[in-house]
Hints:
42% of the residues lie in helices and 19% in strands. By secondary structure, it is α/β, with parallel strands linked by helices.
Amino acid sequence: MDESITETFFSALQQRPDIYMVGIAGVPGSGKTTLCRSIIARRPDVVVVPMDGYHLPRSRLDAEGMLRRGALHTFDGDAFYRDMLSLRQTRQGIFPGFDHAEKDPRPGAVRVTPDAPLVIVEGIYVLMKSWRAEPLFDLRVFLDCDLDEAVNRLTIRHVETGLASTEAEGRNRAITNDRVNAEVILADGCRERADLIL
């Protein structure tokens, strides 16, 4: 990832020392997880809460849900909102993570304690209007990315993580699922409502 993106993020933090909760959104494949790793490398005291922990377990999805996994309706947006509201109010909590090997959420994987100075919540839908969490964040960030480039990245990722067995299969999933989800996020206005676009 371009180091200047991380620098711009930290510049925004320096201008607002009161920032506690940051929401980082972006289309699938835009580099949200990579950005968070870069931030933690410089600020190990930061806690990251991944929105992927709110995937509905595979056991609760029908065939269509499995095919469209990653779409808005395959997440528990209500649980996400409740947990983010509680975090905002109490500055602590236990949150689910996501195990890419098991491809399911991992309950209780992330702990935020009251001494955490900064919490980053990252995921494609964190700024969606229907999820209602957007006003809870002190800083709303949107990680911009060309959709064709995102599809290329996701094609590789799907093969590497075992979601697809061939590059052609990975690209098909990236186009028919991830790109559709990206268009939903952009149509919702998540990018325009962000305080900072990287």
